Structure prediction request, 93 residues.
Amino acid sequence: MTTAKRNRPSGGTRAASKSTATDYIEDSSLHRAEDGYSAPSGDERREAELLAELRGLGYRISVKCRVCGHPVVSARSVAAHIGPKCRAKQVAK
Prediction:
């Protein structure tokens, strides 16, 4: 049995990065309490896990449009509880 050897692109070795991913995360304002970040609660983490599991099984979240009552499934529409057609009509008013 033969094994294939991967060829490296020309240039030889890779230069070491000056900053690592953890340095970026620690410096990010998205993770500082003084900038409004708070760690997700246990309920929020469990909800995210359930949603991910359901998506993996092929299920989608839907809610009723608060204007017309039709089910909406787009992430943006679910967050706003309003479908794209009803949203467009409200903007046009």
Q: What stands out?
A: Residues 60-93 form one domain. The chain has a mean pLDDT of 77. The longest strand covers residues 63-64. Strands lie at 63-64, 71-72.
